[in-house]
Design goal:
heterodimer, A: 5-stranded parallel sheet, 13 helices, 9 strands, 47% helix, globular, B: mainly alpha, SGNH_hydro_sf (chain A)
Chain lengths: 310, 476
Amino acid sequence: MADYKLILKRFAILIIALFVLDLGIGAVLKHFYFTKKNGADYRTNNVINTVKADVLVFGSSKAAYHYDTEIIGDSLHLSVYNAGRDLSYIYYHYALLEAALKRYSPKLVVLDTRANEFQQFKNGEDRDRLNVLLPYYDSHPEIREVCLLRGDFERYKLLSKMYPYNSLILSELVELLPIARYKKDDSENGYIAKHGQFKGGLQPYLVNDAVDTTAARYYKKFVELCKAKNIPLVVTMSPIYQNINAAANRNVQYVVQVCKHNNVPVLNYLRDTTFNNEGYYYDALHLNREGSVVYSSMVASRLKQFLTHK
Amino acid sequence: MLFNSLHFVVFFLVVTPLYFILPHKFRWILLLTASCYFYMTFIPIYILILIFTIIVDYFAGILIEKSEGRERKFYLIISLVANIGVLAFFKYFNFLNENLTLLMGEFGLSNVVPYLSIILPVGLSFHTFQAMSYTIEVYRGNQSAEKHFGIYSLYVMFYPQLVAGPIERPQNLLHQFYEKHPITYENFSIGFKMILWGFFQKLVVADRLSIFVSAVYQNPGAYSSSMLLVAILFFAFQIYADFAGYSNIALGTARVMGFKLMTNFNTPFFSTSVTEYWRRWHISLNTWFSDYLFTPIMIANRDWGKAAVVFALMITFGLSGLWHGAGWTYIVYGLLHGVAVTYEFLTKKFRKKLSKAIPAVIYSNLSMLLVFIYVCLTWVFFRAQSFSDALIVLKRLFAFQGSFFVFDNNLGVIIYSLVAIAILLAYDLSVHLNHGKSYFLYHKSATVRMATYCFILVTIVLIGVFDGGQFIYFKF
């Protein structure tokens, strides 16, 4: 019986110590996270909490690298913010849209859609990447549903105040460096210019085009949310230097089908001949600075037409 | 059910208190029920395989004990054929069929035997080996046959070590099911430390390293020499942390309830020879092979002198490689270790002289480094998706292709991985220097111990990879 009491006593001490550490470390990490002045987390925070741009561009790295906010803004005479983020998927875009629409109504939403938008990830990498939204779980109820896609036990893990910053500690530590506190964000309203030129030649398109039903459902929810809030939406598919048969691709077909049903225009530049030029690419999936300038101009003029006729 | 899931945490938190609440005579029922549930969370129907081998081995054990002479051997053979048969069917059928097709193709013949579309039962190699050790030990007279069917079933199915070992011996485990285990602080404390460190190894080290390693091994031709080198080094730590992590959680969950399972790892990367490495790595499997394969082969051919040892070594390591997986890469992996151990056996005297000529610190550290490098290179065959992929990795590695410090988007992953490896090595070093116990986890000051628990738990929450996937050895 003495052992039993000792075990309980030691466990109680450990639980209390962990509880205090969790609160303390969680609060410190939260402070550093929300006072960042640059980087992807800073931009995510902007979209969720601050930005009130007329045009919001959503998407993955392709959105972040392809949509020059200055070119599009000048052409439309509207303010533009690029909410694209590396390795983000439709769940992330949807959560960001939900959070942004909670604060204000943009005049136009652009959703850059990848040719493999509904790719099936065997190990759930797409949902794992939602970790970048966890710091907002407590303060933004509208994104909780998306955060919980990470797993059945996610809501219990999120009882910890440190857990939302899992795997973010490195960037948090970098923030402790004095130089990081004063460094400005290197994007132009979310747009990141990639410098360098791809030299690999036209690549084969090898991604399986089977449609992940959950991803497809969230894509539809994204489109329908804009429709419900009466916010004009344009779906774009930016160029890739891969030999894709877009017409036969099931992912692309699904995009077209959903957009047609909701009366949303699709600007498909996946294999646009203008971009059959290796010099426009940073790698097979991303345009470089030169390519993005050309692309942004083309998209801007189409968006202008769309807004004029709206 | 994976150890690294909240499902298991809940399971553990229910089963462990129940174990202590129940009267001793009912505990085996709880453990057996829990073990069945644990196993059936993978593929429920496969429990029938376990039931089949359990029934065969249970009766074989009793019949072996009752009979004498050739009859005794006959029952042993029935047991071995049943176990090896199940293993061969589920694990090696397609491999053998594939090689038969290739062989027949050489002679212009076609193979009409169809391929099987079956999923390998989880932990099959582990529990069949454990079951075989029982009938062999009964046959040898080292263990009396277990009459209690439930207890024997529990010996094969005990959930902490059911799916990935340690591969227990009946002499060590069976009697423990009859012993009354009271709740003790010592068992709780040791078990908790093992579980805690096991989770750290799995979540912070293994699953973190696997992010980079998997990316590289998926397409090795696309990576520079430096990246391949990093992936090769990382994999050595990944597989160690993955398997040792599993073993620690297994030992810890059993220990909390008072069961003492075999130690499976003993700081293997501090080995100064490949022979020593195999005494520190996956100890339960290697002693199994040593007791039931190597020694009998060597004794049977003792007239051959040294050749008998070499022959026994190569057979044992070749089969040990094959035990890991049905593929030539695994066999090559095993044989490479067999070659190294054979070399060490044949050059024992020369190396002893050499060790006296070189200062001990230099000799032992250099040996440690060489063993580590050799082991890392053999892991290439173990990890690569095919034999040709393994050759691509090695060719590109030694071709020194690409820039050295091009880590592109992987810098964050690599920094986290290096931090994880540094903590792992610091822990192992403290165990190595502190007679098998971690300096910090077993520190005499309760405050230091508590601080260490907190450090490990906080690190798991902050840089652990959750839901990173199953343990590598589950597929064996």
